[in-house]
Amino acid sequence: MAGDLSPAPTSRALPSPSPSPPSSGPMSLTTRLPGPALFSARCRRKFPPFPSHATPFRRLPSRRAFAFGGIRATSSSVQSPARTAAGDAPDAAMDAVQRRLMFEDECILVDENDQVVGHESKYNCHLMEKIEKEHMLHRAFSVFLFNSKYELLLQQRSATKVTFPLVWTNTCCSHPLYRESELIDENALGVRNAAQRKLLDELGIPAEDVPVDQFISLSRILYKAPSDGKWGEHELDYLLFIVRDVSVNPNPDEVANVKYVNREQLIELLRKVDAGDEGLKLSPWFRLVVDNFLFKWWDHVEKGTLQEAVDMENIHKLT
After folding, report:
1. Residue 151 bears catalytic tag
2. For residues 4 and 246, what is the distance between their CA atoms, to the nearest angstrom?
3. Which of 39, 70, 169, 311 has the fewest CB atoms within 10 Å of its CB?
4. How many degrees, rounded to 5, is the angle at CA 148 between CA 146 and CA 150?
């Protein structure tokens, strides 16, 4: 983690969040969206129109499989790379699916107190140049899903991910988007709605397997981590825990591999990572949570006392 953490810029206007996509099934009371009047009252701002960051791209005509460290992942050849929103050189190596998400997804910009100050494309939010020069900070979440045997579901990120490809991490790591249903601050409902959406997108876990009201938001961390010379993370990350038996069908555009681990298996994984065995790596946010919180929270998972560990008053700045 390089550099001091400074507040995110406040100069960006706050346009209207895009409407949420229609639900594929019945909506529970916990996910019911507030009406426009209530949402406007919460925000206490008038939102101008929401700009588009769409950038032309070409879908991949074919896919090929390859092996990495004994794990099969998917890769795609880019035939017509798009230019960046700022007119930089083409990102020729970027997978088309990931490039589309980079320009279509609008992350929520926050300050170090987790107050919304604007929005920006996922692409710009992950450029180290903007992170360092503009102190751009966005809201994120990390899901830790345990089964009924109290094993933690891990994923290995896809080889085509722009940041931290092929590293092992917690169950699901992503961002709430700048849309009405994912901006709801009350009881972190917006973040929990986003977590349910991404568990389906990345791991094929149906929404009914992970009801929004079953997520427990334990705490928040703030961290910065470079991925390579161009990309990195600067996130205010909500840590969401849930204990459920689920069906898993990973999306190869997002996930290379998955596995459940108990405590001893995770400790062995940490040993291999520290020793450099098998080329194994962990995501920086997952390692921060493991080193600072995970094993004591695991005790609460097994005892059924997770609510006792909740600390949403503090934001832990970790390096």
Report:
1. no
2. 40
3. 70
4. 50
Pairing of strands 172-174, 106-110: unpaired
Instruction: Count Cβ atoms below 10 Å from residue 74 Cβ, excluding itself.
Output: 17
Cα 219 from chain centroid?
A: 15
CB 193 within 8 A of CB 108: no
Q: Any catalytic annotation for residue 173? A: yes
**How far, in Å, are 5, 206, 225, 285 from residue 222 at the CA level?**
9, 29, 10, 9
Give the C-alpha separation, 236 to 112, whole Å: 8
Q: Read off φ and ψ for residue 255, nearest 5 degrees.
A: -130, 130
Report the candidate in 117, 168, 106 with the shortest Cα–Cα distance to residue 10.
117
pTM: 0.71
The structure tokens listed for 46 are: 């008038």
Annotated catalytic residue: which of 106, 202, 235, 254? 235
Q: Which of 134, 173, 180, 202 is catalytic?
A: 173
pLDDT tens track for 99-156: 676 767 999 999 999 999 999 999 999 999 999 999 999 999 999 999 999 999 999 9
For residue 40, the surrounding DSSP H or E stretch is: helix 36-43
Contact 259, 152 (CB under 8 A): no
